[in-house]
Structures are given as C-alpha cells and as structure tokens.
Write a structure and sequence with these properties.
nine-stranded mixed β-sheet; 15 strands
Length: 334
C-alpha cells in the first residue's frame, strides 16, 4: 500500500491587529481614511460597519464585491456584517493575508472588548488600541450622565489617544487641550491629529527588526506628532535592550504589565525561568497593557531570530530609558 506524502503547512506570521474607537463624531473614519491613503507600503485590511462612512476615492478602487473593497495600494475594506469572529476567520484564511487588520469600532462600543475578541484567534497579534477624542466636545461628553462613563471607559482602554478637531479651538488653547486629555487617559501616548493624519509609528514599527544586531542598536526617530500648531511634543523613538541572561518569568510578566505610561508597545525575545527553575525561550508582545508570551516561531535562523533582546517603542527620553534598563535588570534570576 502506498501512503501519500504529507507536506507540513508552513507556519504563518501573525497578522497585526489594531482597534480604533472613540465616541460618536470624534473623527474615527477620517483617521481611517488617511491611514488607507498614507504611503506606508503595508497591506491593510479594515473591518467597518458600513462602507458608506468610508470615503474612498474611486481612483483607488481596484475591485468591489458585496463585502470587500480592494484598493490599488493593496489595502482592503470588509464589512463586519455578521459575527466579528467569522469575519476574522475569513481574513485569516485568505491566501494573501494583510500586514495589519484595523477594526473601526462603533462610537458606542468598548474597543478593549473588540480587541479581546480579536485575540481569541491566534492568527492575530494586538498592536494598538487607538481611541479618538474630539477636543472641543470631550469635556461635555464625559459629564453627560448617559454616555460619560462609556466615553471614559473608551479612553481608559487606549494604548494611544488621538486628539482631533484642534483647529476648532483657539491656537493658544490647543496645547492645553492635549494636556487635559492626557490627564484623563491611562497612557501618556497622546498625539494630536492634523485633520485626521496621525504618526504611522502608532501602528507600524517595520524599522525595528528583532535580530541580534539590535542588542547594540541605539534609538531611532520616527516623526514628530502633529500638535495642532504646537511643536513641543516629544518624537516617537525606540530603544533595544539586550535581556541579561535568564529572567524570572513571574517578575518579568509583572514588570511588563506595569511599563511606564509613555511606552506604546514592546516586543522581543527572552529566556525565562519558571517557578520550578525550568528555562525556556519566549517571544514577548506588549500592547494596550496586554502581555502575550509564547514560544518563539520556528525558523531556519532560529538562533539569530531569538536573540535575547526587547524593543520598547514610545516617547522615550534618557530617564525613561534608564528606568527600562534598571527594570529589566531587576528581572534577572539572581
């Protein structure tokens, strides 16, 4: 009897997942439109409730079906239609998978819960929860007895807050408006949108490869967040820190979950020891205060790919970098 040869299915890299939320009228769709048009060179899939709100220039459209719009730049838009879980499964099964899935949450939903649903599918890896805040209206929204608590919950869930409509505020009050939003948020990653345009570093870190070479790498500058006329906001940067030796798994998990408010996300490879002293390699991913530690992906360059290094991305000054170095060192197995 002859037996058919079974060819193993190659392991596919996870699809980055970002959720964009915010109360009704905050400007989410404008931000999504600009992300679709931006020259980032990435394939983005966008899940939206209704295409009617996404104003896509007809010149960008390559093909259109009932639930998918395919764009010339490689991006696609899909209607959520039925269950979100089903929509995610269909995207994960596509032969040409996107680099990033961006889910536009409705104005009255909790973006953190949507992110949680996305993470139930192992094909996705959370990158960011972006919450859009309407600068002229945010205070009135938060004190509204009917929707205030929900709007605050949206802000609390954000890994980064995007402040919109600053052009409707007097120039001298814009920087104060951004500071007020920062005081309301659980993150210090608060950036001002320029008519919907936001720093691409909120979503992409393609310039931060995870290889052994990064152990000695310095920080890199992305571009300065647009501040509605102000220019005093810090630029995004990243720092790659070599993970010293074997780390205590429990201490590392606790420390990564309590990173400084200025850290947007962290990722990398480490060697950890559990409570019984067993040592193993782990891939770490931190975004929106969620931590995932998994076995590293298999690769023919496994030794290089799993070099012990963690990359931190956010608003990182010298003091923050020193805090990160000290915190990582404190996780070492003594």
């Amino acid at each position: 009897m002859t037996h058919a040869t079974v060819t193993p299915t190659p392991e596919r890299a996870p699809i980055d997942l970002a959720v964009i939320g915010g109360y009704l009228g905050a400007g989410k769709t404008t931000v999504v439109n600009h992300l679709l048009e931006a020259p980032h060179g990435k394939r983005i899939a966008v899940l939206v409730n209704d295409f009617g709100a996404v104003n896509i220039d007809a010149r960008l459209v390559r093909a259109r079906s009932d639930d998918v719009i395919e764009l010339d730049n490689g991006c696609i838009c899909c209607t959520i239609g039925g269950a979100l879980v089903d929509a995610l499964a269909r995207l994960a099964a596509r032969e040409a998978r996107p680099d990033l899935l961006l889910i536009e949450a409705s104005g009255v939903s909790d973006p953190a819960k949507i992110a949680q649903v996305g993470l139930l599918n192992g094909a996705f890896r959370l990158t960011a929860v972006l919450v859009v805040v309407d600068a002229p209206e945010v205070v009135r929204t938060l004190v509204d007895p009917l929707v205030g608590a929900m709007a605050q919950q949206q802000i609390d869930s954000a890994s980064a807050v995007i402040v919109t409509k600053l052009d409707l505020i007097a120039p001298e009050a814009r920087e104060r408006a951004v500071s007020d939003v920062r005081a309301l948020a659980a993150t210090d990653i608060v950036v001002a949108a320029d008519h919907g345009r936001v720093p691409l570093a909120l979503l992409f870190d393609a310039n931060v490869p995870l290889t052994r070479a990064l152990a000695d790498a310095g920080r890199w500058q992305q571009h300065r967040p647009l501040a509605g006329g102000a220019s005093a906001f810090p630029a995004f940067s990243s720092v790659a820190l070599a993970a010293p030796g074997v780390l205590d798994k429990a201490r590392l998990r606790a420390w990564l979950k309590a990173l400084p408010r200025t850290i947007l996300r962290a990722k990398g490879f480490v060697r950890v020891a559990d409570a019984e002293g067993r040592v193993s390699a782990r891939a770490c991913q931190v975004a929106a205060r969620r931590l995932r530690m998994t076995p590293p992906p298999r690769s023919e360059h496994a030794e290089e790919d799993t070099a012990a290094v963690l990359v931190f991305i956010g608003f990182i000054d010298d003091e923050t970098e020193e805090i990160l170095r000290d915190g990582l060192a404190a996780c070492c197995v003594r």
